[in-house]
Amino acid sequence: MTNSIKTIGILGGGQLGMMLAQAALKLGYRCVFLEDADNAPAALYGQVFKYDELDDFIAASDVFTLEFENTPVKTAKSLASLEHKGGLFPPTNALEVAQNRLAEKALFNELSIDTVPFMAVESLDELQTAAKTLGLPLVLKTSRGGYDGKGQFFIKTIDEIGAAWDELGGAVTGDGGLTDTPAPLIAEGFINFSREVSIIAVRAQDGDISYYPLVENHHTNGILSKTIAPAADADHLTEQAQSNIGKILSHLDYVGVLTLELFVTDSGLIANEIAPRVHNSGHWSIEGAHCSQFENHIRAVVGLPLGDTQVIKPSVMLNIIGTYSDAHLVLAHSGVHLHHYHKDERAGRKIGHITVMTDALDQTVANIEQLLS
Ligand code: AMP
């Protein structure tokens, strides 16, 4: 198939699509995108089709992938089944699992991957039962459609159970605001973790798997603000992380980049969620690894051998959130790489990132963080 692929059709047209296209172009492939939002960052790199132009998007593409995990499964399935095309990677079963926190955690447990204790909740009564069974505090989440901490309620006391149900209960009937698809809520036991980490791995069409190092993630107001790559003092966690993500990749017969987010606890790693796509916590790899997550994803999708995931130099990725900072001041520091997403400024929106890769890492990161604050 590799030789007949010229154009990759990507579901979604955000910054992830833009960076996938940057990697694809380097390897000789073009990308087109399926995206309804106006001013999609990826438009700078290829034609953007709206969902009502699906036929034209299909005609323009030789193989399909995605950069947006809430891509409608129905659309994904229809693309995957087109016999005259090269398929959809990752497979739609991965998309289905990743779109439903209950299915995701059930799969983790089926594969003997540790999770927090959890229960499905479909009524106020069931929420009260969950609070008794799991204990308080607990975290109530929509099982579909949540992102960046949205669709979540941390219940600390019995008095808050009613408010939590009032806020999220609508998701059970489809009136919850985040998606139109009715689905039970998930109640999760609250976990005391020391830090949050993620592992990104890529699986090729022949089943070959390569792993990026475990990285440490920091959030501000529920949004990823900083990734430290590799995570410090994490060697003892690497085997468990690789085993976990390796099991998921093989079970799903996955092709492409997959991300697994985990909590670090005294008793090891607890899996939180997967993203069936390239991930913000892997942006450091553009400069910090021999082959970036974006290039490796494209390689997997078109059937090329995977590239080297090893770290060139420790790096720290800082997201630019809300407003752009002065590029002159940022780039006055050496060992700093700026990525601008061509998005309008808006509070809480990821509009760019900076990767710091220098011997004076801590000092330079502190200086850049000051510029971003
Ligand atoms: P999530 O959308 O599942 O990634 O959750 C967003 C954030 O909430 C995570 O990054 C954690 O900081 C926190 N969180 C989520 N689930 C739990 C849990 N069960 N216990 C404690 N903190 C949690």
Automatic annotation (TrEMBL):
It catalyses: 5-amino-1-(5-phospho-beta-D-ribosyl)imidazole + hydrogencarbonate + ATP = 5-carboxyamino-1-(5-phospho-D-ribosyl)imidazole + ADP + phosphate + 2 H(+). Residues 105-302 form the ATP-grasp domain. One of its GO terms (biological process) is 'de novo' IMP biosynthetic process. It is an enzyme of class 6 (ligase). PROSITE patterns: ATP_GRASP. Keywords: ATP-binding, Ligase, Lyase, Nucleotide-binding, Purine biosynthesis. GO terms for molecular function: 5-(carboxyamino)imidazole ribonucleotide synthase activity; ATP binding; metal ion binding; phosphoribosylaminoimidazole carboxylase activity. One of its GO terms (cellular component) is cytosol. Its EC number is 6.3.4.18. Transmembrane segments: none annotated. Pathway: Purine metabolism; IMP biosynthesis via de novo pathway; 5-amino-1-(5-phospho-D-ribosyl)imidazole-4-carboxylate from 5-amino-1-(5-phospho-D-ribosyl)imidazole (N5-CAIR route): step 1/2. ATP binds at residues 101, 141, 146-152, 188-191, 196, 219, 272-273. SUPFAM superfamilies: Glutathione synthetase ATP-binding domain-like, PreATP-grasp domain, Rudiment single hybrid motif. InterPro entries: ATP-grasp, ATP-grasp_carboxylate-amine, ATP_grasp_subdomain_1, PreATP-grasp_dom_sf, PurK, PurK_C, PurT/PurK_preATP-grasp, Rudment_hybrid_motif. Belongs to the PurK/PurT family. NCBIfam families: PRK06019.1-5 (NF004679), purK (TIGR01161). Catalyzes the ATP-dependent conversion of 5-aminoimidazole ribonucleotide (AIR) and HCO(3)- to N5-carboxyaminoimidazole ribonucleotide (N5-CAIR). Homodimer. This is N5-carboxyaminoimidazole ribonucleotide synthase. The gene is purK.
